[in-house]
Specification:
Blueprint lengths: L2 H4 L28 H15 L28 E2 L4 H4 L8 E3 L6 E8 L11 E6 L1 H8 L13 E2 L8 E6 L4 E3 L2 E6 L17 E7 L6 E4 L8 E4 L2 E12 L11 E12 L2 E8 L3 H13 L4 E3 L1
Parallel strand pairs: 1-11, 2-15, 3-12
Antiparallel strand pairs: 3-10, 4-6, 5-8, 6-7, 8-9, 9-14, 11-12, 12-13, 13-14
Amino acid sequence: MTGKDLLLGLGNVSDIYIEEAGADRPGRARPWLAPAALAACLALLLAAGSLLPGRQGHVVLPPDGGQPPVTDGGGGETVPPPAADDRDQSREEKPLVIAMENVALNGLGVQLDAPRLWPNPEKYDELRWTLEDVTAYYGRDPFPAYMPAGLSGGAAAEDARWTVYAAKDGTMWEDTVGCVYAARFWPDGGAVSGALGGKTVRVSCSRLGLLADRIYLLPENEVKTTDIFGTAVTFGYRQMSHGPYDPDTHEPAGYFDLYTAEFTLEGTEYEIVTEGLPAEEIVKVAASVVTGRADVEAR
């Protein structure tokens, strides 16, 4: 596995299929209210319900048709953290549990291609880092402690190396490192993508700033984050189509799920992208980066 393999991009994307999600929650009747007061309260609840986010397709409905894993909240607010009883658990004795009903999924638009950096060899030196070098630079192993069953690759590979660049005076110029985990790999080491029925997890991190730029369907101030054990994580979802495409109707052969997670932890920016996996998996992968523990559950 080479540094180039570890930093593969997502490529082009297709049209997203977004369904409206959420339904008005009925008001709870209070027997001590007079009929007229009760009617006024119900009218007020219905009017307020129409203003809540998620009523106009602001929240993506997963393709299985289930309820969207998001709770109502104001625009741009962080979704409530996991249940208090889970946060009170001893992290040394019990698994870390995340309630999926508290996870907000934001619809993904197109992805802007990240510019490629071409360092001038007269000014910058190419460095080949081992996992030990990466850990020393980031102050911790930055890669996930949890990985979905059946996926291999990543930092565990014996020949894993990361290409970074530093100025002649030793100042870091490009420090992005990443790993690709997949259910299947091609003979040349490339991961079989979700478009070809594969299952993949890609993890990238940088202290200097990642170049990838995710575009969400909501305005920036309305994109929701989710509290994952004290870290605000932005989750995104897009249903991707894949070929072969019908020559007459241009209908795709099928679809696969793409999820993303973005967050900053201890001064390091992270991006996680999964293909062909359910939402629970990216939540657990992200939580394992945040906590450094593999015993995470999402339900």
